[in-house]
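Z., the sequence and structure:
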Amino acid sequence: MTSTALVYMMTPGLACFYGGLVESKNFLNQIFLSIVCMAIIPVQWCLFGYSFAFGPGNSVFGSFNYAVLRSFGFNNFYGENSDPMNSLTIPSLTFVSFQCAFAIITVALISGSVVGRMKLIPYMIFVFLWSTFCYDPLARWIFSGQGWLNRMGIIDFAGGMVVHFASGISGLVAAIILGSRSNFDPNVLKTGQTHLPFTVLGTGMLWVGWMGFNGGSAVAANGMKY
């Protein structure tokens, strides 16, 4: 849970990091685009996202068997693993929460590409759909022991492909499709229209959060090698 809390902290850190780099007029918009992911993704993850990524199913996609987390009880926070599909050494709901934090930060990374280009409601719909049709399948293929890439021997210890590759490519595609920002000033860094102290603050939060991001991916705190 400590690692989960650190990864959750990375999303506000990302909001500050991005917010300090955009024009002042887009500052609050950038903050909200990142934070809104923390409201949408946990709902999607608990409804069916976790089930699609880690639930029973085939090597490509999961199922609705774990929808609304109906297979897990709240007592699982206290040490029980009731998930027969995933070999865990931690409580089931703790693992669900940790993976949810990964899903949040992944889609939030894309927000820097669409700030000033996309309105809020379309963005919220995009966040929900992208997590369902992009992140969940990728997490299934690589993070889940049932995924076809995982069975081929692919190892993605802390999201190099599932998190960074997926969000980076998606952000690039989104920026190309949406086009340039209206009234963008290319000299914004020289004119002082940014909040660079927030970027420094966000960098620190991301730096600390990375301890949980990478450390928690081991799903254990012992001397065993991955």
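The mean pLDDT is 86. Residues 2-213 form a domain with the Ammonium transporter fold fold (CATH 1.10.3430.10).

Let me know what you think.
H.
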